[in-house]
Amino acid sequence: MDQAKGLRQIAKSDALAKSHARMASHTKKYPKVIAVTSGKGGVGKTNIVGNLAVAMTRKGKKVVIIDADVGLANIDIVFNLRPEYSIRHVVSSEKRLDQVMVKTHHGIGIVPGGTGFSDLTRLNEGEKLTLLSEFETLAEKADIIFVDTGAGISSNVLYFNAAADECMVVATTEPTSITDAYALMKVMSQKYGTRHFKLIVNMVDSERDAKRVYASLSNALDKFLKNVVLEYAGFIPFDRQLQRAVQKRGLVMDAFPDSTAANALEKIASDLLNHGDRNRSDGNLTFFMNRVFQAAT
Ligand SMILES: Nc1ncnc2c1ncn2[C@@H]1O[C@H](COP(=O)(O)OP(=O)(O)OP(=O)(O)O)[C@@H](O)[C@H]1O
Ligand SMILES: [Mg+2]
Question: Residue range 34-55: average pLDDT?
Fold first, then answer.
């Protein structure tokens, strides 16, 4: 009798274990999507994305960059690439996403946006479904996806920011960059209910300046927008070596790995990987492009 009961219990726990294993295999692990954005243009987004991607790749992460800037696509320049196709060819079903994606010598996948993202609301259902299913294929290919958005508050930028797991705002010490960063966070919080942002302050003389920018932005948020949290993600000094690298169509991380900018970017990348616990993907089974379309409707 006892033995039969024991056997029944073993059979039951075996079935339970099998069903858990089945459930686990259905729970897909999605990459973390980090949108890098700014109010004002020219503050360093593309260089930040490129260098953080290199730093994370060196730490063993699989990284993909989506160039969502519908203006001048300059991620190609810092990686010295000349992509033949863009997302436009995926939307029109001429190419698959992996035929459009180019690989850098580091192994980073670059998805050239071109004008393919230019007006997400105007895509028809078929085109949307194509994009959705093609982007699902990224789930196995990446641990981290960076979205290099354009500057400003155009609808496309807002959709990408709203859909990302993390919205990383880049600002400099320039007053216009600070007020534009504030305006961007205001719109994001009012239109899409975004409550959490991270801030990188670029081109500073010292960390004190970066902390000042952070303090003024978070004070303004506290005062005028309740419940919006701005997290300080780090600073990057003004560094001519970064500019020299750009002039050679390269990244400071590759060209001048010991420079102050490269060190600062390396630290930001480590911190992001170590404290990246706010991963909305864990609980949200709709993947990035799906959320972009949700934001766009
Ligand atoms: N830390 C830095 N030190 C010195 N110069 C910098 C630094 N970061 C960026 N720059 C300069 O700013 C220029 C613009 O940078 P980047 O193209 O990355 O900005 P962006 O925000 O992507 O611009 P856009 O809004 O046009 O897409 C770089 O080419 C470089 O000359
Ligand atoms: Mg750019």
Answer: 96
